[in-house]
Amino acid sequence: MxxxxxxxxxxxxxxxxxxxxxxxxxxxxAQTEPQExxxxxxIPTEQAPPLRAGLRSSSYGISPFPSPEWWLNSTTSMAAPxxxxxxxxxxxxxxxxxxxxxxxxxxETDEDYPNIITSNxxxxxxxxxxxxxKAGIRVWLQVEPAGADVSTLIDLTLEHYASHPSVVGFGVDxxxxxxxxxxxxxxxxxxxAQAWSEQVRSYNSEYQLFLKHWLPxxxxxxxxxxxxxxxxxxxxxxxxxxVAEFVAxxxxxxxxxxxxxxxxPRDRNWWEQLATPPSDIGKRLAEEIPNLTDLYWVDxxxxxxxxxx
Length: 309
Known about the structure:
The chain is α/β, with parallel strands linked by helices and about 300 residues long. It has one domain: Glycosidases (TIM Barrel, Alpha-Beta Barrel), CATH 3.20.20. It has helices spanning about 5-15, 70-80, 125-135, 150-160, 190-205, 240-255, 270, 275-290, 300-305; strands spanning about 50-55, 85-95, 100-105, 115, 140-145, 165-175, 210, 225-230, 260, 290-295. Helix 4 (about 150-160) packs parallel to helix 5 (about 190-205) and helix 6 (about 240-255) crosses helix 8. The protein starts with 6 loop residues before the first helix and ends with a helix.
């Protein structure tokens, strides 16, 4: 700020003050000690991506399995009520079968992989991914790993499908990770999460890994980089009960991105009373969870919202 003085008074003050100088602020000797950081847990400070909203897809969740057009229309409808949301799907390409993960696409070679069964010739996903590419729908490719090596599943899946621009990453349903040895799945270690995340991003630097479960203790203790944490909890007494638990999930992993699957049959008794269940639930979650990036209605009840013709 500049002060205005009368010319004479200004001359007098300048003479009076000529021997004075402004002392610079004393340097603080109590410097903040550098915080030790673990590179593996660093969270990028980029602007949050647009919300992804859509449906979960599995070979056992809806029958008959809908056409690409149905998936395009229902996924777009799910995303429409959310401002700037990108239509997206969680697309399951490998399901649990005892200790085996059964993939629904052929591999590039005839090699046998422990605890992995592949489709000999038929690719169940290609036509759908082509449609998603053209429509601008985003796709997470997910597996239920069982006793299979997750690193191998990542390579088999992304070597086959990474050419599709719709693909945004790879997901692991931890409930089914070595589930025959560990109740409700084996806890993912930081080392495992880091290795999987870095492997996924080696195919595309913008890809992410997601890890899915309803128990935070099944997730890696500290590793967060390049990873979204997806909660698929169910059997709530009410919408308020769901929101409270999902808010706690978001806070537990903040500032890492989180997502939610909902619309399960065991919650139908209260969500069917809502005017528009997918958006009513999703908007409550979006209002209360700042690190929310993903919302998915499950295929088990999708036809109740978006009937097949």
